[in-house]
Write a structure and sequence with these properties.
This protein is an alpha+beta fold and 460 residues long. The protein has 2 domains: 13-114, OB fold (Dihydrolipoamide Acetyltransferase, E2P); 143-448, Bira Bifunctional Protein, Domain 2 (BirA Bifunctional Protein, domain 2, 2-Layer Sandwich). Helices cover 27% and strands 25% of the residues. It has helices at 73-76, 123-126, 136-140, 142-145, 149-171, 210-220, 256-276, 278-287, 303-312, 333-343, 394-404, 412-415, 432-439; strands at 13-15, 33-45, 49-55, 60-66, 83-92, 103-114, 175-176, 182-183, 194-198, 201-205, 223-230, 243-252, 299-302, 347-350, 373-378, 382-389, 425-431. An 8-stranded mixed beta sheet has the order 7-11-12-17-16-15-14-13, sandwiched between helices. It has a 5-stranded mixed beta barrel with strand order 2-3-4-6-5. A hairpin with a 3-residue loop joins strand 15 and strand 16. The longest helix is centred in the middle third of the chain and has 23 residues, at 149-171. It is elongated. The structure holds 4-amino-1,4-dioxobutan-2-aminium adenosine-5'-monophosphate. It is found in: Cytoplasm. Its EC number is 6.1.1.22. Its main location: cytoplasm.
């Protein structure tokens, strides 16, 4: 059977599935004749008709084919992924029936553009639902997994959140800058540096753009960036990636309290903006029905109180070595997550000891053992933000380099910020994938990036 378009029909108007204002046929009333291009997402064959769910990246459209339209070679080999253009009348679905947006396309003609395999290679076989997202075959087929509703929804929410950050910063008059990825300094310790040969010199992939952001504030005011950061994490956990998207900001002429208030504000504003769009709000609801918008102020807790809290549980929450926590311990991922899940609120955990935090952090006046530092912890994921006030004094910074065994030479440009008009300033970095995992109820950050990079995984 060879299909021909019926030229006596009205000319079809090109549409995308996001367009909801197209006239629908109902009863005697004719609907608009449209042509829509996309891919088959699902199909259901009945005796009289074939039902296709079409996707075009903007939604789902139910399409009904009957008569000769179901009998072509193309139709008999329709498969998930087949790309085609369908022509027909848009109608309201009959009462008692459901379809996306309450409408369906009554197809009168179609042209297949690219067939997709319907045999053992079919998408449905390559990406079976039972497989877990940590399995290598699912990761190898990430390019096909992305065609699924869940993966696509997470990517859409991520896009909305990234835009909400950009909007929030613009509204707060922050300037966006774009620091380099090739660097010769470390920010967060040597153990997670990716080292490379840079035309004969030693260089690294950046761990954080913080030091560069600090150089922007004198002339640009508060600044931010959304760039990739790289960590050679040797551990396979559900919240560590080798390459992640880092939302970082630096605020000038602030104190620690200002920084904490700003963190509450940026997080709350971004969620508000994201959920103000009904399409995104519906995606979040579907992915994470239990998502609760945090209320301000967030719970605040000093590190030393967290240590007491862990020990006061019955039974006490122990370190990874199975011991009681003592002041100076790094609170490990498992303990931190248990605490956050039990408290079940966003927490601003502050004032970490000097020894377990980065070299640049400012010490608290009242207790020189601790820093003006903060981690934001969220139920389900744990830490999503790390931030602090920065050392202002030249000498103090030189001492910190010494303590950390850092050669000050490569840091001259950073150190000189203290020489040419220093200021009280601070900032933070937020892991976008962790934020998305929290908002979208994802078990791991791996499903929150397009193509996750972690230990032993660098493809597709
Ligand atoms: O706590 P971190 O290491 O802080 C910094 O890098 C600061 N220099 C940022 C700054 O002040 N501008 O990292 C900040 C956040 C973490 O809270 C976490 O959300 C995320 O970055 N992060 C990771 N996300 C995924 N995979 C990893 N391996 C990550 N390491 C950090």
């Amino acid at each position: 059977i060879v299909l021909m378009e019926d030229v006596s029909l009205p000319k079809a108007i090109k549409m995308k599935i996001w367009q909801k204002d197209i006239e629908l046929g109902e009863g005697d009333k004719k609907g608009t004749r449209v042509k829509v291009s996309g891919r088959i997402h699902r199909q259901r064959q009945q005796k009289q008709a074939t039902f296709l769910t079409l996707i075009d990246g903007y939604g789902h459209l139910q399409c009904v084919l009957s008569g000769d339209l179901t009998k072509t070679y193309d139709a008999l080999t329709f498969a998930q992924g087949t790309s085609l253009t369908l022509y027909g009348e848009l109608k309201r679905v009959l009462e008692g029936q459901t379809a996306p947006d309450g409408r369906e396309l009554h197809v009168d003609y179609y042209v297949v553009i690219g067939a997709s395999p319907s045999d053992a290679d079919a998408i449905t076989n390559r990406v079976s639902k039972e497989q877990d997202p940590w399995e290598s075959s699912m990761l190898d087929s990430r390019h096909l997994v992305l065609r699924g509703d869940n993966a696509a929804s997470v990517m859409k929410v991520r896009s909305a959140v990234e835009w909400a950050f950009a909007k929030a910063y613009k509204d707060m008059r922050f300037t966006k800058i774009s620091p380099p990825a090739f660097v010769q300094t470390q920010v967060e310790g040597g153990s997670t540096l990716f080292e490379l040969d840079y035309h004969g010199e030693k260089a690294y992939l950046t761990q954080s753009s913080q030091l560069y952001l600090e150089t922007g504030i004198p002339s640009l005011g508060n600044v931010y960036c959304i760039e990739k950061s790289f960590r050679a994490e040797k551990s396979l956990t559900r919240r560590h990636l080798s390459e992640y998207t880092h939302v970082e900001a630096e605020l000038d002429f602030v104190d620690f309290e200002d920084l904490l208030t700003h963190l509450e504000e940026i997080i709350s504003t971004v969620i508000e903006t994201t959920l103000a769009d009904p399409v995104t709000a519906a995606l979040v609801k579907e992915l994470n029905p239990g998502f609760k918008v945090p209320t301000r102020p967030f719970k605040r807790m000093r590190y030393s109180d967290a240590i007491d809290w862990l020990n006061a549980q019955d039974p006490p929450i122990l370190t990874d070595k199975g011991e009681r926590h003592v002041f100076g311990d790094d609170i490990a991922e498992a303990a931190e997550r248990r605490m956050t899940d039990i408290i079940n609120l966003p927490i601003l955990l502050t004032h970490f000891p000097v020894e377990i935090k980065a070299f640049y952090m400012k010490k608290e006046e009242a207790d020189r053992r601790v820093t003006e530092s903060v981690d934001v912890l969220m139920p389900g994921v744990g830490e999503i933000v790390g931030g602090s006030m920065r050392m202002e004094g030249y000498e103090e910074l030189m001492e910190a380099y010494k303590r950390e065994g850092i050669a000050p030479k490569e840091y001259y440009w950073y150190t000189e910020q203290r020489k040419y008009g220093t200021s009280p300033h601070g900032g933070y970095g937020l892991g976008l994938e962790r934020f998305i995992a929290w908002m979208c109820g994802q078990h791991s950050v791996r499903t929150c990036c397009l193509y996750p990079r972690f230990m032993n995984r660098c493809k597709p």
